[in-house]
Specification:
binds NADP nicotinamide-adenine-dinucleotide phosphate; Rossmann fold; globular; 9 helices; alpha/beta
Length: 260
């Protein structure tokens, strides 16, 4: 068995997850790449081999399904090839009046953003705590810091990720196993296209690149932080949301989402 560490990244076919895979390969990790688009994952695996000498397993799985989640859980439980870092990054958002949105898609959003993330965290942490080594990064959003009208389900799933990850971080404090929640703000990826949100409504200075988000995240992870909010504006926005009266915050969040 190679002494290179293995990182498993969900949602590695695009955006922040793809950049996590590149940055982790650059740091000397081998990868398990998870998403639905197998062709995209294979192209990335070739790039990581050529550019960084990293070996990648391609695990095409739909994490909105029980079968897809179970196959990734099985990989995380394989003690012969232990996974040292799990990045729970795959998620999507929906946009619109909740009472008009197709309910099956809202349920799929909860299944991916919450249920898959929770199940994969459990599957990873069992063996990690036994080895007293490893860690999990759960990708949330600054959208999880306040109820967000027109993205009600999405912001609620991210509020779950924030609360859950912070609590588990504390449970692990007497171990060497890390748990960090990453809460990015507006980031240039395919996220907005899938959520059918107009990107043009928000000013350029609010946006970060996936590379900026991932580099900040990995520095915070190295330091054992519980929470990473990349970018000064996003940090201030999260603090503002946490301290404002709930009614005012709801109205402000609704105005911002409507601008998109
Ligand atoms: N972009 C932003 O402004 C922003 C802001 C805050 C937080 N975030 C968070 O950042 C994370 C990454 O999003 P992104 O911005 O990089 O978006 P993205 O470019 O749309 O990437 C999403 C990734 O998730 C994967 N995915 C989607 N549905 C899946 C499923 N059913 N099963 C398995 N994989 C699935 C996609 O791959 P396939 O389609 O190939 O399955 C893709 O690789 C998410 O947790 C998102 O909530 C993004």
């Amino acid at each position: 068995m190679s002494d290179r560490r293995i990182a498993l990244v969900t949602g590695a076919s695009s955006g922040i997850g793809e950049e996590f895979a590149r940055a982790l390969a650059d740091r000397g990790n081998d990868l398990v790449l998870v998403a639905r688009n197998e062709e995209k994952l294979r192209e990335l695996a070739t790039e990581l081999q050529t550019q960084h000498g990293a070996t990648s397993e391609v695990l095409a799985a739909d994490l909105e399904t029980d079968d897809g989640i179970a196959r990734v859980e099985a990989r995380l439980g394989d003690e012969a090839e232990p996974v040292d870092l799990l990045v729970n990054n795959a998620a999507f958002g929906t946009n619109g009046n909740f009472h008009e949105l197709p309910i099956d898609n809202e349920v799929a959003e909860v299944q991916l953003n919450v249920v898959a993330l929770m199940r994969l965290t459990r599957a990873a942490l069992g063996p990690m705590v036994k080895r007293n080594r490893g860690g999990v990064i759960n990708v949330s959003s600054i959208g999880g810091y306040q109820p967000t009208p027109f993205m009600a389900t999405y912001s609620a799933t991210k509020a779950f990720v924030n609360s859950f990850s912070n609590a588990v971080h504390e449970e692990l404090k007497d171990t060497e196993v890390k748990m960090m929640v990453l809460a990015p703000g507006y980031t240039h990826t395919n996220f907005h296209e899938r959520a059918q949100v107009e990107k043009g409504g928000m000013p350029g200075f609010l946006w970060q690149t996936p590379d900026e988000v991932v580099q900040t995240a990995l520095k915070s992870y190295d330091k054992g932080r519980a929470v990473c909010i990349p970018g000064a504006i996003n940090k201030s926005a999260a603090m503002f949301s946490s301290s404002m009266p709930a009614g005012l915050m709801r109205r402000v969040a609704g105005m911002v989402t409507k601008r998109q």
